[in-house]
Amino acid sequence: MEDDPMKTRNVTSRSRSFRSLHKDVEGAGFTEYILIVGLVVIAGIAAWTAFGDQIVAVLESQTEQIGAAGGGGA
């Protein structure tokens, strides 16, 4: 059986394609990480915009209660 040079070339070409695809997959993990971080930041900004005033009011109230109970620092 004689090896066809075109078949060998196609196999070699496919092998290179698979190797380069593997390298692309490694970069995809970093891209996914950046997308998730971006979504968390956007969600945080949206939550702060929606509930920021209420959160500040609750924290100020708690601070006053701690100060009134004699638990204030310096």
From TrEMBL:
Keyword Transmembrane found: yes
The name this protein goes by in its record: Flp pilus assembly protein, pilin Flp
Residue spans crossing the bilayer: 33-51
Keywords: Membrane, Transmembrane, Transmembrane helix
Record's keyword annotation contains Membrane: yes
